[in-house]
């Protein structure tokens, strides 16, 4: 994997794709600061790879008010950080055909964790990334469900759709800066083993790409799904060019 960044702070590193990506990056000689809520898993990650290659920070990104301080302390402790990998997420079923079963507090927390926290972390870390004399990156884990929503997961689908749009917008806004905006989009995953294999595949495909799409979406071929991706990308670029010319 050709990956130009040397120190990645990876949020959501204690399970699934995040764990796989953290392990993959370390094996490529990249220092990884793993961020998550589970101290035992963070400690195990550092113990496995050693403190010269790995470090960790405990954080609950759903606590939005704490995120500016978290980012400030993270940079003080790890000033060489040149890439922020935002990977955490929650996924629950909500059935609005049976409103009494839907707890809006849980729905809203999922929206906060999957989307609003990423916006807050982006805002908090951008000054550090923009001030660097070298190229830096913000990397986001999205999902195919952002383009083709899954009705059984309305909060997950909506939050990831919002994240996807946010990524496209800030990529355009930062196009002339030294901050690269990278986006990884896997399909729905169902197990720790599947997540780990997916993470390894992502690592292999990240070379030189700003968007990495793994596999397809249920009931559609990869060709059908990628046609949606390509047509949308063309429309986004046409709109961006129009808006640039208006200024």
UniProtKB/TrEMBL annotation:
The keyword Transmembrane helix does not apply. GO terms for molecular function: oxidoreductase activity. Keywords: Oxidoreductase. It comes from the Eukaryota. Pfam families: adh_short (PF00106). The keyword Oxidoreductase applies. Belongs to the short-chain dehydrogenases/reductases (SDR) family. This is Short-chain dehydrogenase reductase family. The lineage of its organism: Eukaryota, Fungi, Dikarya, Ascomycota, Pezizomycotina.
